[in-house]
Fold:
Amino acid sequence: MSKYKIAWMPGDGVGNDVMEATRGVLDQLRFDAEYVRCDIGWEFWCNEGNALPDRTVAALKGTTCGLFGAITSKPQDEAKEELIPSLKDKGLVYFSPIVKLRQMFNLHTNMRPCKSYAGNPLNYRGNKITNPSGEDVKIDQVVFRENTEGMYGGVEFFPLPESVYEALCANPKMKPWKAKGLEHVALSTRIVSKQGCTSICKQAFEFAKKTGRKRVTLIEKPNVLRETGGLMTRCFREVAKSYPDIWADEANIDAICMWMFKNPQDYSVLVAENMFGDIVSDLCAGLIGGLGFAPSANLGDTYAVFEPTHGSAPKYSGQYKVNPIAMLLTAKMMLDWLKETDMATRLEAAIARVIVEGKVRTYDMGGKASTLEMAQAIGAYATA
Ligand code: IPM
Ligand code: MG
Structure:
């Protein structure tokens, strides 16, 4: 019997390439796991009308945690076009299987570390005024993104039903929309709860305390989103009271997009609701060399799914071209979660060493190494 049962979900596109590379490294580390291959992704939408088949949900329930590659998501009209003929006109609706997984398994916390490694030619260097030395700006940020609520809740309408319009008229600002014709109006909702907001803020502060970090920054927009942003801000301030040694500050989502380029080294832990967390985590990834370096963990109370922040990059699919480091750092997060600390530490040190040596580089870093060559170089150091 293996120690762990890992749900293996390569998904779409380059998800397969980076997962294959990662499997090789996990085997070299002698990670004691049985891998349960699970169907998920575009192929299953097209052929079965469900990108997250029931058998996958059932299989996941018997595993320790999941490792996930990437998913192709397309807007509703395009998604319907690609269904096999017998499934067309059945009224099937596409949903992103990773978003669904996060909700089904209550993976409420999305943790996304963005750390620069010495020697990465893609490291952020700012400009001559903010960074006169021209040396790499050292970045070590961790985004805590609320993972189940907000605009990702999926409560949307088009056209807008009369009953929904009537109900929304409880707020007089709704009235003028009728004049546009409800058949021309689309509505998405941003629903957040005190529980969700409090929980993500607590996770962020607890992490800061445990790791000795001194600053937690809330990213919101309460000057415009008065109710949802207001609730999140109040929850943040309330939670912050229990951590008097940590500097708790607040930034608007638009402002942080600017500040992050001016002085990214000043930020440490960032906390946000779902959509703002999605946005800011790509921004932070850009500062450490791009999505090829950005891992993430979808964490629940007893279950977790680990996935790189990047997408399926269909144009590179099957070419073994993309950088496997995001996926390998994702595997490192999984090892940390499983308390396989020694393996996690060796894996990260091997990644750092390959980056600083600069001999093996994938195309995004200006090199010619394939996904598998990069992973092999890392695997060799991880086990040396
Ligand atoms: C991410 C991705 C997903 C998201 C997509 C693929 C649904 O952008 O994990 O950040 O929006 O959460
Ligand atoms: Mg994203």
Residues 71, 73, 96, 98-99, 278, 309, 311 surround 3-isopropylmalic acid (ligand 1) (CB under 6 Å). The mean pLDDT is 97. DSSP finds 13 helices and twelve strands in the chain. The radius of gyration is 22 Å.
